[in-house]
């Protein structure tokens, strides 16, 4: 099915009023492109560490929305123009120009799968998408079947690789592992296949937890060995009780510096004495902030590993 995309050129100050007007006209799925920086709160909620530089002096804004082929495009444009005319009495609405284009109805969520192929993450760890065939399996390979869905974590990113290398180095059989911010479940699955006695993963996104559970099942790992719970381990007291205290040999967190910093003050209660806290997802410009927080919260830093622009900190309770 084809869709008609309408893009309205306006100015930043008018975006909210125009968006409300479009909603009143029955238009849904509004997309806004502007140069307004997100707030610190939004940054934390979206788990964004690096943001593009914006020209905040540029007040242009674009509002896009879609109509299907059966909609009367001319009629909708007329209604939008009338709405702009009325709003212009109260606020500068910019040029009000509307650009029309046509786009195919594609499966945007799944299109990326065409580019996710099996790859050797480490000398003996292979990540294989569930929908792909593996043609070069070697003796001794640990194969991870993975369908991330909408969750973060295919293993290709430097931050995930740093965590996996640390798990290979420090994890020994019969250890218990806590995976905070489990995403697709990749670190939990690898920890289990490396010999962990039990792994518990948490993620604030229920969809990620669902994806993790499905990936564990695909990898033929029993639920009693790897389990997942949804919630924020920093603030959710019920989840903290569920996770348990002073019972994990390793806690791994591949998140972001701004989350690892407060997490370092909370994670220690879940670790055994001498337990390790492996953290990654740290952009190198925030390395010192993380190190200071980890040390201030009673950990001894035993290693700092770097890959590209990313840092992993391994610390002992």
UniProtKB/TrEMBL annotation:
<dbReference type="InterPro" id="IPR004498">
    <property type="entry name" value="Ribosomal_PrmA_MeTrfase"/>
</dbReference>
<keyword id="KW-0949">S-adenosyl-L-methionine</keyword>
<keyword id="KW-0808">Transferase</keyword>
<dbReference type="Pfam" id="PF06325">
    <property type="entry name" value="PrmA"/>
</dbReference>
<dbReference type="GO" id="GO:0032259">
    <property type="term" value="P:methylation"/>
</dbReference>
<keyword id="KW-0689">Ribosomal protein</keyword>
<dbReference type="GO" id="GO:0005840">
    <property type="term" value="C:ribosome"/>
</dbReference>
<comment type="function">
    <text>Methylates ribosomal protein L11.</text>
</comment>
<dbReference type="InterPro" id="IPR050078">
    <property type="entry name" value="Ribosomal_L11_MeTrfase_PrmA"/>
</dbReference>
<keyword id="KW-0963">Cytoplasm</keyword>
<feature type="binding site">
    <location>
        <position position="181"/>
    </location>
    <ligand>
        <name>S-adenosyl-L-methionine</name>
    </ligand>
</feature>
<feature type="binding site">
    <location>
        <position position="254"/>
    </location>
    <ligand>
        <name>S-adenosyl-L-methionine</name>
    </ligand>
</feature>
<dbReference type="GO" id="GO:0005737">
    <property type="term" value="C:cytoplasm"/>
</dbReference>
<protein>
    <recommendedName>
        <fullName>Ribosomal protein L11 methyltransferase</fullName>
        <ecNumber>2.1.1.-</ecNumber>
    </recommendedName>
</protein>
<keyword id="KW-0687">Ribonucleoprotein</keyword>
<feature type="binding site">
    <location>
        <position position="203"/>
    </location>
    <ligand>
        <name>S-adenosyl-L-methionine</name>
    </ligand>
</feature>
<dbReference type="GO" id="GO:0008276">
    <property type="term" value="F:protein methyltransferase activity"/>
</dbReference>
<keyword id="KW-0489">Methyltransferase</keyword>
<dbReference type="InterPro" id="IPR029063">
    <property type="entry name" value="SAM-dependent_MTases_sf"/>
</dbReference>
<comment type="similarity">
    <text>Belongs to the methyltransferase superfamily. PrmA family.</text>
</comment>
<feature type="binding site">
    <location>
        <position position="160"/>
    </location>
    <ligand>
        <name>S-adenosyl-L-methionine</name>
    </ligand>
</feature>
């Amino acid at each position: 099915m084809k869709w008609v995309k309408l893009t309205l050129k306006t100015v930043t100050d008018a975006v909210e009023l125009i968006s409300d007007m479009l909603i009143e006209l029955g238009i849904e799925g509004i997309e806004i492109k502007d140069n307004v920086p997100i707030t610190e709160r939004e940054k934390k909620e979206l788990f964004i560490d690096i943001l593009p530089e914006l020209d905040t002096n540029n007040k242009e804004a674009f509002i896009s929305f879609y109509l299907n082929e059966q909609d009367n495009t001319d009629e909708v444009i007329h209604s939008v123009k009338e709405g702009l005319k009325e709003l212009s009495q109260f606020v500068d609405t910019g040029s009000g120009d509307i650009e029309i284009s046509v786009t195919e109805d594609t499966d945007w969520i799944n299109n990326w799968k065409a580019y996710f192929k099996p790859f050797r993450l480490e000398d003996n760890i292979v990540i294989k998408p569930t929908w792909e065939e593996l043609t070069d399996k070697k003796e001794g390979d640990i194969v991870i079947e993975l369908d991330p869905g909408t969750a973060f974590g295919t293993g290709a990113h430097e931050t995930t690789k740093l965590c996996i290398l640390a798990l290979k180095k420090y994890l020994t059989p019969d250890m218990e592992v806590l995976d905070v911010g489990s995403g697709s479940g990749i670190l939990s699955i690898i920890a289990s296949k490396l010999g962990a006695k039990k792994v518990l993963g948490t993620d604030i996104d229920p969809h990620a937890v669902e994806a993790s559970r499905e990936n564990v099942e695909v990898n033929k790992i029993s639920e009693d060995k790897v389990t997942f719970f949804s919630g924020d381990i920093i603030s959710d007291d019920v989840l903290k009780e569920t996770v348990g205290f002073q019972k994990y040999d390793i806690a791994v967190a591949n998140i972001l510096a701004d989350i690892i910093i407060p997490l370092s003050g909370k994670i220690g209660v879940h670790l055994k004495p001498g337990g390790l806290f492996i953290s990654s997802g740290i952009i190198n410009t925030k390395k010192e902030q993380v190190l200071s927080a980890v040390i201030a919260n009673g950990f001894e830093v035993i290693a700092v590993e770097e890959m590209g622009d990313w840092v992993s900190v391994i610390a002992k309770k």
